[in-house]
Design brief:
It is built from 8 helices and 10 strands. The chain has helices at residues 50-57, 80-90, 106-116, 121-134, 150-162, 180-197, 208-213, 233-236, and strands at residues 6-19, 22-35, 39-43, 65-70, 73-74, 91-94, 168-172, 200-204, 216-221, 224-227. Helices cover 36% and strands 27% of the residues. The strands form 2 sheets. The chain has a 6-stranded mixed sheet.
């Protein structure tokens, strides 16, 4: 049964790839529902299909069968242009590597999703500056990625993911390349923004500290999502 507060809904997702002439099943009948403001961790061994699942949920990849609905619209009901616009409005992405545009400043990187959505330059830059200030980068607006530390670049990536105030942010190992101190600061920031903006988070992680901050944790095993008992969660994050 679906909840009227559902942001993301996946029904019976299956996805396989060709490997050495054989079909490799990565997702096998995935069912998942994410509520507004909910924080979900997805864990599992490397190669279990976690990134594939994120890409299908975010409309970057298609399942072989099954369906994903974001804010009531199935991805497969949208053509490429409409899908890109819906994704820009409702989905933010944060990756292990920041994927910032090297020739753009921090301000320009964060403003870009708003410009793509059709907002004016003045509004886009104003909102980008406001969010960059909120993540502690008010003095670094005009710096290019090469002039920023790893932690600063990841903060810019987080600001870019949140600037449109999307319905859900999908994160793939968001602290994987950060030192422990910087990772802790970024996690504190994410929790604060989740609480204030009520944006749903889906986080793929190997880090038990991140999983412990989420509302619930699921593990991807043999292409299926299973609940993780809180007492055993750390032992299943490998």
């Amino acid at each position: 049964m679906t909840n009227k507060n559902s942001v993301l809904l996946a029904n019976d997702l299956c996805r396989s790839y060709q490997q050495a002439g054989a079909d490799l099943e990565v997702l096998r009948g995935i069912n998942l529902e994410i509520a507004k403001g909910e924080k979900l961790a997805i864990v599992g061994v490397s190669g279990s299909g976690k990134t594939t699942l994120l890409n299908v949920l975010g409309g970057l990849d298609n399942a072989d069968s099954g369906a994903v609905s974001l804010c009531g619209k199935p991805w497969d009901s949208l053509d490429a242009t409409a899908r890109a616009a819906w994704r820009n409005q409702h989905v933010g992405f944060v990756y292990q590597f920041h994927h910032l545009l090297a020739e753009f400043s921090a301000l320009e990187n964060v403003a870009l999703p708003l410009l793509i959505a059709g907002h004016s330059v003045a509004e886009s830059r104003g909102r980008a500056a406001e969010l960059l200030s909120r993540v502690g980068l008010a003095e670094r607006l005009n710096h290019q990625p090469a002039e920023l530390s790893g932690g600063e670049r990841q903060r810019v990536a987080v600001a870019r993911a949140l600037v449109t105030e999307p319905s859900v942010v999908l994160m793939d190992e968001p602290t994987g390349n950060l030192d422990p101190h910087t990772a802790a600061a970024l996690l504190e920031l994410l929790m604060e923004l989740n609480d204030s903006l009520q944006i749903s988070f889906v986080v793929v992680t190997h880090d038990p500290k991140i999983a412990a901050l989420m509302d619930r944790t699921l593990t991807l095993v043999d292409g299926c999502l299973q609940p993780v008992n809180s007492d055993l969660a750390e032992s299943q994050i490998v």
